[in-house]
Amino acid sequence: MEDVPIYLVPEQRFSVIDRPLGVLAWTSYFCDIQVSDRMRELGLWKGKGFATVIFLDRLSHSTRELRGAVLHEFAHYLTFPPRPESYSSLDATAANEWVAIANASADASKNDSPPWRNHDPEFVRAACHLAHRAKRLCDVASHNLSFSYWYYGCNEDVWMNTLRDELTSMASVPIRDILKTAPPSDFSTLARILTQN
Ligand SMILES: [Zn+2]
Questions:
Q1: Is residue 1 in a domain?
Q2: How many Å lie between the centroid of ligand 1 and the Cα of residue 73?
Q3: What is the domain extent for residue 110?
Q4: Which of 39, 109, 148, 161 could be a cystine partner for 156, CB 3.0 to 4.6 Å?
């Protein structure tokens, strides 16, 4: 885990937050900034970092599901491009990202975008590493991170199997550093097959 603040706050505390249909959780490129004013009011603000909003009333009260939802959003955070050194308020781009990055299993059919929009193979690779590391620490299964089935139609473990050696050998390498390296050929082949449809 990176040395940055992590915020998990019930969305009921944020009157400005939208509730996209069918979404269990969301994050965005500027999610921490989006919630920062309210976090300051609550006395919880510790600086910029990873923030995600979890719609608790949509979860099945399963701890595994909650862990999976948070880790799914954290995988998005790991694949976001570097941010400018200084930024302090929302801009139009951030507003557009607001819903786009949401964990939306329901929105893929609304437009011509491929079903894996916002969940490309780089995101999947990050999620696989998170799932592997989380399983060592707590009770959570790969499918709880929901990084494949809704977007590619195959079980999460299919991807995990293509990274089996890397998941072990690079278990202590920062995931952002891993993403800068070429993935194993089995992973690339699977990604190519699944994104050709
Ligand atoms: Zn997502």
A1: no
A2: 6
A3: 6-194
A4: 148
